[in-house]
Write a structure and sequence with these properties.
It is a single chain. The chain is of the alpha/beta class. It has one domain: 3-Layer(aba) Sandwich (Mannitol-specific EII, Chain A). The chain contains six helices and six strands; from the N terminus they run αβααβββββααα. Strands 1, 2, 3, 4, 5 and 6 form a six-stranded mixed beta sheet that branches.
Length: 156
């Protein structure tokens, strides 16, 4: 599974999201993702919040991968956001988050959901890529970085 398969083009990338905290960020991302994924916004928000109650999806280093399963979704889908200002996300390292990759999978997608999570996690462990993502202002450029970095890794 490739990042290009998860992101439905540059419209699934947000360049300067403003949020006051974790809940407002999840609200904002749910609204955008509902449009991109053709999903029900409130249901998506509830699923993400439900998952956060189990433990934060803030993986450290200023990065979070909120995720959940949702009925009506045909395949795993992603939405990437670079925040205008970092927000507290109850991350494992207690650092605020400024890069978020929201991931939604079909309700019955056990292995595919885990593969997608692993793929996103591997991608965001690339420190050079993370620095470039933080330095990039436009959604199109962020999308290109995300997709091209994967292609470059595959070629190596």
């Amino acid at each position: 599974m490739e990042i290009a398969d998860l992101l439905a083009g540059p419209n699934a990338v947000l360049a300067s999201v403003k949020a006051s905290g974790k809940k407002s960020l999840l609200t904002e991302l749910s609204a955008r993702a509902a449009t991109v994924f053709q999903a029900e916004e409130r249901q998506l928000f509830d699923r993400l919040l439900e998952r956060e109650r189990l433990g934060s999806t803030g993986i450290g280093g200023g990065i979070a991968i909120p995720h959940g399963r949702l009925p009506g979704i045909a395949k795993p889908c992603g939405l990437f956001a670079r925040l205008a200002h970092p927000v507290d996300f109850d991350s494992i390292d207690e650092r605020p988050v400024d890069l978020v990759f929201l991931l939604v999978a079909p309700e019955g997608a056990g292995a595919d959901h885990l593969k997608a999570l692993a793929r996103v996690s591997r991608l965001l462990r690339d420190r050079a890529l993370v620095e470039k993502l933080r330095a990039t202002e436009s959604a199109d450029a962020l999308y290109a970085l995300l997709v091209e970095s994967v292609q470059a890794q595959s070629a190596a």
